[in-house]
Write a structure and sequence with these properties.
The chain is mainly alpha-helical. It has helices at about 5-30, 30-55, 60-80, 85-105. Helix 1 packs across helix 3 and helix 3 (about 60-80) packs antiparallel against helix 4 (about 85-105).
Amino acid sequence: MFNSVAILALISAFFYSIAMVAMKSLADFPSIGLALIIGAALLTAGVFEVFALRQERLGLIYIGILGAEVIFIGAMTHLHFGESYSARELTGMGIVLVGTAIAWT
């Protein structure tokens, strides 16, 4: 179903998303702990991205990570911060996902 490159891209996107949510939290609640979470998440995401890049082109990995981040960040911010999205924003997210699907097929 999924190939190993797609799994690596998904894992990388997940850790980039954790870093983004921690960054948003850091703006409201500055702390060393959140700063360490951001650093660790970015480092982990970067490692998985490097492994994915060893097997696939940069553009395709970037698109895959971006598409997955749209889903992860949307879900995380909705659950953690209670953010909601307008129809226009959801349409934009859908366009990114369709573009990602087209690129990966």
